[in-house]
Amino acid sequence: MLFKYKIVDKDGENKEGQIEAVNVDIAINSLQDRGFVVVAINSAEKKEFINISLFEKVSNKEIVILSRQISTLFEAQVSILRIFRLLSSESDNPLLRKKLSIIADDIQAGSSIAASLARHPKVFSDFYVSMVAAGEESGQLSKTFMYLADHLDRSYELMSKAKNALIYPLFVIGVFAIVMILMFTVVIPKISAILVESGQEIPFFTQMVLSVSNFLIDYGIFLLVALVIGGFFLYRFTKSNVGSLSFSRFKISIPYIGGLYQKLYLARIAGNINTMVVSGIPIVKTLESTASVVDNAVYKNILLESAQKIKDGKLISEALGDYPEIPSIMIQMMKIGEETGELGRILATLSKFYEREVDNAVNTLVSLIEPILIVALALGVGVLLSAVLIPIYNISGGM
């Protein structure tokens, strides 16, 4: 790559120029080795008009496949630089292809694999980087990438099941809302004209339905604008520290759904800690890395605070035991694992247990929510039609 630079030379004069280097770090080191003070440096190559990172992302599934490919190529004794060059050229995702190419450049320049991956936190999590660093230290990179692929695959499957369980009810609720809006704004106004022209007394419940219909027709656009603005500010609020914590606590407090989320996060916590402990990563680093991928602010804070308590001399079971969000059975089993030296095996058992619990909870939720939503949809439309059609029937009967 070509870089433009501004430097101060040995005589104290400001100079500008260009230098060819694999990456910016190499360029800076090369200039400093000549005794120059680097004031500014940036790429001299033509930048793309569109930043693909704004429109592309790397999915968990792609990271799982990438990890398996790296492991397989390691077993085939392909060099690490060749692996990343090969996978960079073969990737269908433009963003991942670009990231892998940069990583290959960094490795060629002398960086470790973990350090190269760490430069791309939006693609490779702290958990992923820590595992790779442990694999480099132990010389077991092939196994490490296979462990990562297996672990991420289980986590991805678990998250997919939980999300898919919520897609159907959200779809039905959305259809219900659309049907009701169409009824209030299109169907009922036409029917209400018949009731008004009849001159007969309109029942109270029917008057309520007609009032709602008139409100939506007259002020529906303002209501829609208010909902959009409110949704925008709610989204911004959930991205703040206070909002994220409040939303995370709300998620695990919803009846039944909250229990599903709790089991999902506990399965992820147990699985991540097990994978990292077995790989020989220190428990403090393990908790900090797990906090970065747990995807819930409540449990993230618990893990970070527990890591600090462990630094102060507490055992992991004692540190986590201070929080009601961590079930007592999990604390007791972790304590047994610490006493027997089998913490990894205990955590693996806990992870599988909570994964089964999530699976069972999702199946139960789907089997219950489908008939409930269908009945609710039918009752809502039925009651609405009854409120309008019964008076019309009375009118026709009196003729």
UniProtKB/TrEMBL annotation:
Q: InterPro entries per the record?
A: GspF/PilC, T2SS_GspF_dom, T2SS_GspF_sf
Q: Which domain of life is it from?
A: Bacteria
Record's subcellular location: Cell inner membrane
Q: Which residues cross the membrane?
A: 165-188, 208-235, 372-393
**Topological relation to the membrane, as annotated:** Multi-pass membrane protein
Which keywords label this protein?
A: Cell inner membrane, Cell membrane, Membrane, Transmembrane, Transmembrane helix
- Which Gene3D superfamilies does this chain map to? Type II secretion system (T2SS), domain F (1.20.81.30)
Major subcellular location class: membrane
Look up keyword Ligase and say if it applies. no
Q: Which GO terms describe its biological process?
A: protein secretion by the type II secretion system
Q: Which GO terms describe its cellular component?
A: plasma membrane
Taking every annotated instance into account, which residue ranges of this chain make up the domain Type II secretion system protein GspF? 67-189, 273-391
Report the sequence similarity comment from the record: Belongs to the GSP F family.
Q: What is this protein called?
A: Type II secretion system protein GspF domain-containing protein
